[in-house]
């Protein structure tokens, strides 16, 4: 089984690559080649914690996978990130694990790529201003991804 760390993922995947992959994934889902399954949600012992389990089948490559995303707000007091994600990729022929990927960075890229694709498809072609609600961790990735599909001259942050 391959193990991919956050550091390795950051070295391997760029925002433009993420946009390309997410566009292909949207097309595969739209055509019925790929599938998404119901999300399972839960929480930990501490109040305010939560996790979600998301699974999908990439029909273009015959690969199933599962992502677990967590939110533990008190992690900040211990110098840890409050959000974390890990993805398990299964071998399509055997169902055995083929990769375990620390995917917090990749989740940020996937979210930003989806937002950029929405801008590419839905915003006026001559739009050069973007509004962002919030200035947290995700906002940085969103603006960078949108800059890949549009020339941006100003960013408004609320």
Notes on the protein architecture:
The mean pLDDT is 96. The longest helix has 19 residues, at 104-122. With 158 residues, this protein is of the alpha+beta class. The chain has helices at residues 6-12, 15-31, 104-122, 137-149; strands spanning 2-4, 35-36, 40-42, 50-58, 63-71, 83-90, 97-102, 129-132, 154-157. The chain is built from four helices and nine strands, in the order E-H-H-E-E-E-E-E-E-H-E-H-E. Strands 1, 2, 3, 4, 5, 6 and 7 form a seven-stranded mixed β-sheet that branches. The protein has a two-stranded parallel sheet with strand order 8-9. It has a domain at 2-111: 2-Layer Sandwich (ornithine cyclodeaminase, domain 1), CATH 3.30.1780.10. A hairpin with a 4-residue loop joins strand 4 and strand 5.
Concise overview:
With 158 residues, this protein is α+β, with helices and mostly antiparallel strands.
Class by alpha and beta content: alpha+beta
What is the alpha-carbon Rg in Å?
Answer: 17 Å
Strand content: 25-35%
The CATH top-level class label of the domain at 2-111: Alpha Beta
Reading the helices and strands in chain order gives: EHHEEEEEEHEHE
Q: Helical proportion?
A: 25-40%
CATH level 3 topology of the domain at 2-111: ornithine cyclodeaminase, domain 1
CATH architecture group name of the domain at 2-111: 2-Layer Sandwich
Mean pLDDT metric: 96
Largest sheet properties:
7 strands, mixed
Count of extended strands: 9
